[in-house]
Design a protein that fits this description.
alpha+beta, 4-stranded antiparallel sheet, Helicase, Ruva Protein, domain 3, 10 strands, 3-hydroxy-3-methylglutaryl-coenzyme A Reductase, Chain A, domain 2, Alpha-Beta Plaits, single chain
C-alpha cells in the first residue's frame, strides 16, 4: 500500500463525516465506488432476496473504523460494524497505548477445520476403529474427490481421527463413534466444503464399520484453527485518571484473576472480547454465530468456563495474551456478492484468512484491555456515559448542534435518562429563544 499508509489517524473522530470518508479514501486508495459502498447501500433488495428466505428488507448497522492498530509491525485500519457505543473508541484507544509499547504480536494456525461423522450400530468399538484407521487413505481420497480444486491448491482432507464417546444415557447405552475429517480449507471458512466431504464419505464409513451414519457436519469448535495475540505495555504508560500506572496495572491483573476463577465474571469478560471480534466479523462478512459458538466452547475446554484472554505483570510490563478459535474466510458466502463487505476487506488490507484471524484476535485483546482498564480503575460507566448520552439526547428529540449540548449536560448531571434529556433540551431551547428575541424600548 506504500510507506505512507498508517492506521494512526489523529483527530479522525473530530472530522465531519464526509471528510472522514475522504481521509480513508486517500489513505487506503479506495475507488469512488468502494467509498460509496462503505457509506451504505452495498446490498440491494434483489440480492437480499437471493441470500435468505422470506426477505422483506435490509437491516443496517453503523460501520466505523478501529484506528491505531499495529500487528506484527503492520498497520491496519479496521472496519467494525456494531451498534454498541464505546466499542470502536475503546479499541482505537487501547490500540494507541499498545502501539506505543511496540504493537501487538500475533500468530495463527493453518486453516484446519473438523468434519464430524457420527456412527451407530457398529458393534465392537475397537474393531470399528481399527477398520477406519486401516483405510484412512481411502477415506481421505474419497473426501478429496468431492473438491479436487481445493486439493490442487494445497488444501483438502489431511487426516482422520476416530473418537469413541461414552453413552450419554449411562453404561447401558451404546457408545458414540465419531470420525473426524481434518480438512485444510485454505481461504474459505469451510462449512459447505466440509459438509459435502462428510456426507460424501458416510457410505464408506458405514461399509467399513458395519454401522449406520446419522449426523455428518462440521464442528464449530475449530480448535485446530486457533489465533493468538499478545502485547506488552510498560506499566508507567498506564497512568491515567489521576492514578499511577502501577495502580491501574494492579486493577487489570485483579480483573483477570477474577475472570480466571469465576465463570460468572468470565462470561462478561469474554463478552467484551467478542464486542471487538464480532464487529470485525460482521463488517467483513464472516459467520459471526459460528465464531461465537467456537469461542465460548473453547473457553470451556478444561471443564470450567474461563476467560479467552489473561493479563499478568512481567518485568515492569503489563502483558496481555489471547487465544481463541477463529474460522474465517476471505472468499465465498456474502463476500462474493456484498460490495460493502468487499470494500471493507480491501480497506483492511489482509492478504489471507490467517492474517485476518491475527488482526481479529488483536482487536479482541484491545477491546478487552480497554474494558478491564476501566473496570479496574474508575469503572465502566464513565466511558460509556458520554457516548450513551448522545443516543439518549437524540431519542429525546435533539438534533444538530443540540445533540452535543444536551449530551454534555446529561453527563454533567450524572443522570442519563430520556426524561432528563427532554427537560434539558427544553431549557436550552428556551434560553436560546430568549437570547435572540428582539429587545423592546
Amino acid at each position: 500500500m506504500g510507506e505512507n499508509y498508517t492506521s494512526r489517524l489523529a483527530g479522525f473522530h473530530k472530522l465531519p463525516l464526509a471528510d472522514r470518508l475522504g481521509t480513508v479514501s486517500r489513505t487506503t486508495r479506495l475507488s469512488a465506488d468502494e467509498v460509496g459502498a462503505l457509506r451504505g447501500g452495498g446490498l440491494s433488495m434483489e440480492t437480499a432476496n437471493q441470500m435468505i428466505e422470506n426477505a422483506i428488507g435490509i437491516f443496517e448497522m453503523p460501520l466505523g473504523l478501529g484506528l491505531n492498530l499495529q500487528v506484527n509491525g503492520r498497520d491496519y485500519i479496521v472496519p467494525m460494524a456494531v451498534e454498541e457505543p464505546s466499542v470502536i473508541a475503546a479499541v482505537s484507544f487501547a490500540a494507541k497505548i499498545v502501539r506505543e509499547g511496540g504493537g501487538f504480536t500475533a500468530e495463527a494456525d493453518d486453516p484446519v477445520m473438523i468434519g464430524q461423522v457420527q456412527v451407530t450400530g457398529f458393534g465392537d468399538a475397537g474393531a470399528a476403529t481399527q477398520a477406519l484407521v486401516a483405510h484412512k487413505e481411502q477415506i481421505l481420497a474419497l473426501a478429496n474427490s468431492f473438491h479436487p480444486s481445493m486439493t490442487a491448491r494445497g488444501g483438502g482432507a489431511r487426516d482422520i481421527e476416530v473418537r469413541v464417546l461414552p453413552p450419554p444415557e449411562g453404561p447401558r447405552g451404546e457408545p458414540i463413534l465419531v470420525v473426524h475429517l481434518l480438512v485444510d480449507t485454505q481461504e474459505a471458512m469451510g462449512a459447505n466444503l466440509i459438509n459435502t466431504m462428510a456426507e460424501g464419505v458416510a457410505p464408506l464409513v458405514e461399509q467399513l464399520t458395519g454401522g449406520k451414519v446419522f449426523l455428518r457436519i462440521l464442528s464449530n469448535l475449530a480448535d485446530r484453527r486457533l489465533a493468538r495475540a499478545s502485547c506488552r505495555i510498560p506499566v508507567k504508560a498506564l497512568a491515567d485518571f489521576d492514578m499511577s500506572g502501577e495502580s491501574i496495572a494492579e486493577g487489570i491483573v485483579q480483573a483477570s484473576r477474577f475472570a480466571q476463577a469465576d465463570p460468572y465474571r468470565a462470561a462478561t469478560h469474554n463478552k467484551g472480547v467478542m464486542n471487538g471480534v464480532d464487529a470485525v466479523a460482521i463488517a467483513t462478512g464472516q459467520d459471526w454465530r459460528a465464531i461465537e459458538a467456537g469461542a465460548h466452547a473453547f473457553a470451556c475446554r478444561d471443564g470450567q468456563y474461563r476467560p479467552l484472554s489473561t493479563w499478568t505483570l512481567e518485568e515492569g510490563h503489563l502483558v496481555g495474551r489471547i487465544e481463541l478459535p477463529l474460522a474465517l474466510g476471505t472468499v465465498g458466502g456474502p463476500i462474493k456478492i456484498h460490495s460493502q463487505v468487499q470494500a471493507a476487506l480491501k480497506l483492511l488490507r489482509v492478504q489471507s484468512a490467517r492474517e485476518l484471524s491475527m488482526v481479529m484476535a488483536a482487536v479482541g485483546l484491545a477491546q478487552n484491555f480497554a474494558a478491564v482498564r476501566a473496570l479496574g480503575s474508575v469503572g465502566i460507566q464513565k466511558g460509556h456515559m458520554a457516548l450513551h448520552a448522545r443516543c439518549v439526547a437524540v431519542t429525546a428529540g435533539a438534533r444538530g448542534h443540540w445533540v452535543e449540548m444536551v449530551a454534555n449536560a446529561l453527563v454533567q448531571a450524572g443522570h442519563v435518562k430520556v426524561d432528563k434529556a427532554r427537560e434539558i433540551l427544553a431549557v436550552l431551547m428556551s434560553e436560546s429563544r430568549t437570547e435572540v428575541a428582539p429587545t423592546t424600548t
